[in-house]
């Protein structure tokens, strides 16, 4: 359920954290996608798809301040921090989604059922709030999939002094 707090003098004012989880228990067991961004730029990613015997995939990478700033802009533009999940559907056999954000003195923690498409939102009591949540989640997943995919396709160990100054390598080292 919704947990919201805002206090302009709070020590949380400058803190940042984002965590997203979506998952379900099905014929292949517990399948889920989860990622989190920490204030220091660490992105942790986990994807557990038991389909065809795949195992848990875990990746960690540091992102730059520019990426964190873009992430914060996405959150601000979405206006999800102004929402409340009390009228959202509860998690069910379809699955569960969770998002937790600490940003600009706000702390939200929302839980709802798995939303497969925008059509799943039609007819809901708080369709506007769910749309806000849905579109933010789509943007976040797109960003995370791009970051993980691009990072692990680039081999920073192949850079030499002639083609890399070395300052960028530290920003992207695997944790």
From TrEMBL:
<comment type="similarity">
    <text>Belongs to the mago nashi family.</text>
</comment>
<dbReference type="Pfam" id="PF02792">
    <property type="entry name" value="Mago_nashi"/>
</dbReference>
<dbReference type="InterPro" id="IPR036605">
    <property type="entry name" value="Mago_nashi_sf"/>
</dbReference>
<dbReference type="GO" id="GO:0008380">
    <property type="term" value="P:RNA splicing"/>
</dbReference>
<dbReference type="InterPro" id="IPR004023">
    <property type="entry name" value="Mago_nashi"/>
</dbReference>
<dbReference type="GO" id="GO:0035145">
    <property type="term" value="C:exon-exon junction complex"/>
</dbReference>
<keyword id="KW-0539">Nucleus</keyword>
<protein>
    <recommendedName>
        <fullName>Protein mago nashi</fullName>
    </recommendedName>
</protein>
């Amino acid at each position: 359920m919704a947990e919201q707090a805002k206090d302009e003098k709070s020590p949380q004012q400058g803190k940042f954290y984002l965590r997203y989880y979506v998952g379900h228990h099905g014929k292949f067991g517990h399948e889920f996608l989860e990622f989190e961004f920490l204030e220091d730029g660490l992105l942790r990613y986990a994807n557990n798809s038991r389909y065809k015997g795949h195992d848990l995939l875990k990746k960690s990478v540091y992102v730059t301040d520019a990426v964190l700033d873009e992430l914060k802009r996405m959150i601000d533009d979405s206006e999800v921090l102004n929402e409340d999940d009390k009228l959202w559907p509860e998690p069910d056999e379809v699955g569960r989604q969770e998002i937790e954000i600490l940003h600009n003195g706000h702390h939200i923690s929302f839980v709802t059922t798995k939303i497969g498409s925008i059509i799943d939102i039609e007819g809901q009591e708080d369709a506007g709030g769910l749309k806000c949540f849905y579109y933010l989640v789509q943007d976040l997943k797109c960003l995370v999939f791009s970051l993980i995919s691009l990072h692990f396709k680039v081999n920073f160990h192949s850079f030499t002094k002639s083609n890399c100054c070395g300052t960028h390598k530290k920003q992207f080292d695997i944790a």
